[in-house]
Automatic annotation (TrEMBL), chain A:
Bilayer-spanning residue ranges: 40-62, 99-125, 137-159, 171-191, 212-234, 272-293
Stated family: Belongs to the binding-protein-dependent transport system permease family.
GO BP annotation list: transmembrane transport
Protein name: Sugar ABC transporter permease
Organism annotation: Streptomyces qaidamensis
Protein's UniProt keywords contain Amino-acid biosynthesis: no
Compartment(s) of residence: Cell membrane
Organismal lineage: Bacteria, Bacillati, Actinomycetota, Actinomycetes, Kitasatosporales
TrEMBL record, chain B:
Pfam families in the cross-refs: BPD_transp_1
ABC transmembrane type-1 domain residues: 67-297
PROSITE patterns found in the cross-reference section: ABC_TM1 (PS50928)
Record key words, sorted: Cell membrane, Membrane, Transmembrane, Transmembrane helix, Transport
Compartments in which it is found: Cell membrane
Membrane topology: Multi-pass membrane protein
Family: Belongs to the binding-protein-dependent transport system permease family.
Lineage: Bacteria, Bacillati, Actinomycetota, Actinomycetes, Kitasatosporales
Protein name (record): ABC transporter permease
A Gene Ontology term for the protein's cellular component: plasma membrane
Predominant location: membrane
């Protein structure tokens, strides 16, 4: 900003508000100049950051189509030809298909579990008065802010003693438990906003509490369920710490874990292009989900910070 | 509404609360208890040792190093990230040129595009981001050094993650990269709810954009900034820093422990060294640091609440 070629109008700036009537003519000019310089500057900075965000991702995609030699000799050049074999090699030989399947199973199971159990607890906490309601609510909410790592050491032994270590269903149960705080928090607030009259009418008509919940309240809560569902999808798909500790069987690895392990072992095998293909493969589902459900993603994630 | 109410409540709460208690609350309580024992984690036998683990921790140089790094993560990282995000969000939402007959306050052209792009890294797994940057930082064939070579800086070829003085900063930069977009979107939402009349009044009084930012936008956004700060600090103390440090830096938390953080140290003591009790002790210290951090930020940030 210091290199501006028009330093003249700037000194007038501080005096401008005081002698408003006298300086009438100059302000528009000054404003325009200041606006232009600042606009160029702000646009410049915004473009640079956009570039810094996109470049590493593009670089990864580009690299995933190169052969190993050109990855090392010229990291920034475009691939000479598209090596789709990297992708198929990563998918089959580097076990990406297994990791992918494990991740889909774990995330699918825990997503459904989280939504069902989370909405059940949230519904009860939002709509019913009973002793201990507040206590249970804050017990759930408290889980959002304490460091998971502290619980992780004993958690390992709890899971181990139950014979759930290195199993898909064990991982699902733990994912659900750790997703509940935010899910309950979000859905409790959501159920409070829904009108009570419809549920009451259904109940008067003879529907049981559970029937009212599943047939009337849940369908009404769909927008909330979608928001919190996407939030949990991203969180669970991207989970790294829990599987690293609870899931050490090479056959049961999820994507993030598998990729990190692959990076370590690939250092010896030297299949960097395959590894980059795997990396891009793992990124695609979440980027696709983000682009499709952009508004809900942003809503869900920002609600998480504003607890 | 009374008929079968309690049976219903119990039926609906039992399973979620049970899972939560078993996998979250119970291990949490246990870990505080274990910090007073000499449990190795390998055998079921252990005995109480009082505060032995705690006094050992105070004499542990690596613990102090990890504490120092964690504090740096919790304090510096939010300042940089939130500062950048505030700047970007202001440019995107308020910094636009005034157009003829348009609204007084506009963002720059293409503001929604920026918001979409900036948010990208936030949806990626921190593990994948860490891997990607571990490659980018590679001194021989990484994207960064070859970029430096490309623009004629052949003699500037840092080791990045291999350099004890640089590794921690390189790791922190990755976290900034991946979180700025989230705060841009968060602050944008906050800025959108500030009434345009406030800006109009400020403009009529002759305020330029810098003044507008510090006198109008920031005070009205303060609550959001504060909770964002706490959120970022908790992340930086916990899961996020674990993934980046564990994946990106080599050996036991970087060259000569130069990047180790508390959460990584907990992991290593428990699952690598078979010192589960000592690990939980460091975990308790981490909990104390986290709570103290949140309390301090809330306390320092307290100001008169502005209603609008």
């Amino acid at each position: 900003m210091k290199t501006t070629e028009t330093p003249a109008p700037l000194p007038a700036e501080s005096g401008a508000p005081v002698t408003k009537t006298d300086v009438r003519p100059p302000p528009p000019v000054k404003e325009k100049k200041e606006g232009t310089v600042l606009n160029v500057f702000s646009h410049g900075v915004l473009v640079i950051w956009a570039f810094m965000v996109v470049m590493p991702l593009l670089w990864a995609v580009m690299t995933s189509f190169k052969d190993d030699r050109s990855i090392f000799s010229s990291p920034w050049s475009l691939p000479d030809s598209l090596h789709f074999d990297n992708w198929s090699r990563a998918w089959t030989q580097a076990n990406m298909s297994d990791y992918f399947l494990n991740t889909v199973l774990v995330v699918g199971g825990s997503l459904i579990g989280t939504l069902v159990l989370g909405s059940m607890a949230a519904y009860v906490l939002a709509r019913f008065d009973f002793p201990g309601n507040r206590f249970i609510y804050y017990l759930f909410i408290g889980g959002m802010s304490f460091p998971i790592m502290l619980a992780l050491v004993p958690l390992f032994y709890v899971v181990n003693n139950m014979g759930l270590l290195n199993t898909i269903h064990g991982l699902i149960l733990v994912y659900i438990a750790y997703s509940l705080p935010f899910t309950v928090f979000f859905l409790t607030a959501f159920f409070r906003t829904l009108p009570t009259s419809i549920a009451e009418a259904a109940f008067v008509d003879g529907a049981s509490h559970s029937r009212t919940f599943f047939q009337i309240m849940l369908p009404m809560a769909k927008p909330g369920l979608i928001s919190v569902g996407i939030f949990n999808f991203l969180g669970q798909w991207n989970q790294y710490m829990l599987p690293t500790v609870l899931n050490t069987d090479p056959d049961k690895r999820v994507l993030t874990q598998g990729l990190v392990q692959l990076a370590v072992s690939q250092g010896y095998k030297g299949d960097w292009s395959g590894l980059f293909a795997g990396l891009v493969m793992a990124m695609l589902p979440v980027l696709a989900a983000y682009i499709v459900f952009q508004r809900q993603v942003v809503q869900g994630l920002t609600a998480g910070a504003l607890k | 509404m009374q008929h079968g109410k309690y049976r219903f409540i119990v039926g609906f709460l039992a399973l979620p609360l049970g899972l939560y208690a078993l996998f979250v609350i119970w291990p949490f309580i246990q870990s505080i208890y274990y910090s007073f024992t000499d449990w190795t984690g390998l055998s079921p036998e252990f005995k109480m040792v009082g505060f032995d683990n705690y006094s050992r921790m105070l004499d542990d140089d690596i613990f102090w190093k990890s504490l120092q790094h964690s504090l740096l993560f919790a304090l510096l990282l939010p300042v940089v990230t939130i500062g950048l995000a505030l700047f970007f969000a202001f440019m995107i939402n308020v910094g636009g040129r005034k157009r003829k007959n348009g609204p007084v306050i506009t963002g720059v052209r293409g503001s929604s595009f920026y918001k979409i792009v900036y948010f990208f890294p936030q949806v990626l797994s921190i593990a994948i981001v860490a891997l990607l940057f571990a490659f980018a930082y590679n001194p021989d064939s990484g994207a960064l050094n070859s970029l430096l070579r490309g623009i004629g800086l052949d003699h500037v070829q840092p080791l990045w993650l291999g350099d004890p003085d640089l590794a921690l900063w390189a790791v922190m930069a990755v976290l900034v990269w991946s979180t700025v977009g989230f705060f841009v979107v968060l602050f944008s939402a906050g800025m959108a709810s500030i009434p345009a009349e406030m800006y109009e009044a400020a403009l009529l009084d002759g305020a330029n954009r810098v003044t507008t930012f510090f006198r109008v936008t920031l005070p009205l956004l303060w609550d959001t900034v504060q909770s964002g700060w706490v959120y970022m600090g908790i992340l930086a103390l916990g899961a996020e820093s674990f993934a980046v440090v564990q994946i990106m830096t080599t050996g036991p938390g970087g060259p000569d422990y130069s990047t180790t953080v508390m959460v990584l140290y907990v992991y290593q003591k428990a699952f690598r060294d078979g010192q589960a009790a000592y690990a939980t002790t460091i975990g308790v210290a981490l909990l104390v640091v986290t709570l103290a951090f949140a309390a301090v930020v809330m306390r320092l940030g307290r100001r008169e609440r502005l209603e609008y």
